[in-house]
Amino acid sequence: MSLQRTFIMVKPDGVKRGLIGEIIKRFEQKGFTLLNAELMTIDRSKAEYHYMEHQEKPFFGELVDFITSGPVFAMAWEGENVIEVSRLMIGKTDPSEAMPGTIRGDFAAAKEENVIHGSDSLLSAEREIENFFGLLKRRSLEDDFPFEDRKSV
Ligand code: IDP
C-alpha cells in the first residue's frame, strides 16, 4: 500500500449533467481525502499540456475542443493506492465496455464524452495536479482543521 495523490476532473459533459456531487460522493465514501477542487474553464494551452501524450492522435483536436468547451471540475485527491483505485472506480475509456457500478459504466455513453478523467500513473498525477493547481498549498483538510476541532463546532 502507498499513500498517493491523483488528479480527477469532471469533464464538461459531466458538469453540464450535474454529476459533480455524485462523483465527489463516491470518492468520499471510498475514504479518499479531497485536497483541492475548483470549477474552471481551461484554455487550449492547459488542455494541450494535459493531453500531451495524445498529441499525435487523430482525435487530439476534438479532444482539446471538447475539454475547453465549458467548465470542468478539477480535483486533487489523496489516499492509499488512489491512482489505481480511482481508475477502477472510473471504468474503461470506452463507456460501452465500462462495467456497471463504475462511473463511466453508470453515467457515460460515448468515449468522446465520458464524464471524467483520472490520472494513470504517479508521474502524470504529479504533472496534472501541478498544471491545474500549481503546487498544492494545503496538504489535507486534516492539517488545517483537525477532526477533534470539527467535532466541537
Ligand atoms: P482515459 O481517459 O481512460 O485515461 P486515454 O486513452 O488517456 O483514456 O484518452 C484520453 C481521453 O481521450 C479519453 O478519456 C477519451 O475522452 C478520449 N479518447 C480516447 N480515445 C478516443 C477516440 O478513439 N476517439 C475520441 N476520443 C478518444
UniProtKB/TrEMBL annotation:
SMART domains reported for this sequence: NDK
Active site: H117
The protein's Enzyme Commission number: 2.7.4.6
Major enzyme class: transferase
GO cellular component, one term: cytoplasm
Matches recorded under Gene3D superfamilies: Nucleoside diphosphate kinase-like domain (3.30.70.141)
Record keyword Cytoplasm present: yes
Cofactor: Mg(2+)
Protein name: Nucleoside diphosphate kinase
